[in-house]
Amino acid sequence: MFMFKKLFAAAVLGLALAGGAGAAVTTTIKAHVQTQAGAPVVGADVIMVNYGYNGPTSATQWGQTDAQGDWTFTSVSTGTGYTLYFNKQGYSPTIRDQFNNPDPSLQHNFWPWDATPLYSTFTVANDQTEVGQVQLPFTGATVNKVLFGSVNYNNIPEPGFFGMVQADPSGAGTLTVDNVPYAEANTYNIGIYDPEQNRGINRNISTGLN
Predict the structure, then answer these.
(1) Contact assessment for residue 167 and residue 145, using Cβ atoms and an 8 Å cutoff
(2) Which label site among 21, 62, 165, 167 has the fewest CB atoms less than 10 Å from its CB?
(3) Taking the mean position of all CA atoms in its chain, how far away is CA 39?
(4) Neighbours of 18 (CB within 10 A)
(5) Is-cis flag, bond preceding 93, omega within 30?
(6) What pLDDT sits at residue 102?
(7) Are residues 189 and 160 in contact, defined by beta-carbon separation less than 8 angstroms?
(8) Which residue has the higher pLDDT, 9 or 175?
């Protein structure tokens, strides 16, 4: 519930900011991912989300860090808000941490108003042990839309483990949720929801994760 309240608040703020946009001006946002020792993290997902009433809008972008730990989002529309997220198997902060932790150092929010390039650095730790990945293929989603999904405990009111995925031009894709703690069969379920279509899928995870 906390996540959805947070996402709704971000959506309202993003739309309010969008209302003040004038001529079409774009900028860039460069994300850098490094360890606490300053070493670049290669192959990390970085997602720049622009929230609307139906979740991430078409202004949302997805990238993966290069050998220097960098990814630059280009043609970023100004006059609206964005939130940057980091994700990599085995690393923290996880997406769950970024959604639910009130620590401002984990929040990477931007509201560009002009063409001035912007920068954001994620300092992360390779400290997630005894965790795995869970996947859920899907079809019939809104084409090219970034969707949220989660792995949740069965019958336990515990916050889940979150993932994101971008549907392809046919509306298909595979949700991957990283950093899910090892557990026995039937401990978790996995689901994904498309708010534009007001439908989703959910599956029990009937095999152990180890």
Answers:
(1) yes
(2) 21
(3) 23
(4) 17
(5) yes
(6) 74
(7) no
(8) 175
* Residue 81: Cβ-neighbour burial (10 angstroms; 0-12, 13-18, 19+): buried
State the burial class of residue 24 (Cβ atoms within 10 Å of its Cβ: 0-12, 13-18, 19+).
exposed
Using CA atoms, how far apart are residues 128 and 57, in angstroms rounded to an integer? 31
State how far the Cα of 140 lies from the Cα of 208, in Å rounded to an integer. 28
Q: Comparing C-alpha atoms, which of 100, 81, 209 is closest to residue 153?
A: 209
Do residues 188 and 182 touch, judged by C-beta distance below 8 A?
no
**pLDDT-derived band at 100, boundaries 50, 70, 90:** confident
C-alpha 150/C-alpha 36 separation (Å) is 28
- Arithmetic mean of pLDDT over the chain: 89
> Which residue, among 91, 89, 178, has the nearest Cα to 133 in the 3D structure?
178
Tokens of 150: 């989660």
Q: Which of 145, 136, 146, 133 is nearest to 177 (CA)?
A: 133
167-205: pLDDT as tens digits: 999 999 999 999 999 999 999 999 999 999 999 999 999
Cβ atoms within 10 A of the Cβ of 150, count?
Answer: 24
Identify the helix (H) or strand (E) that includes residue 170: none
Q: Kindly report the three-state secondary structure assignment for every residue of 25-56.
A: CEEEEEEEEEECCCCECCCCEEEEECEECCEE
Q: Which pLDDT does position 107 carry in this prediction?
A: 83
Band (pLDDT 50/70/90 cuts) for residue 23 is: low
pTM higher than 0.85: no
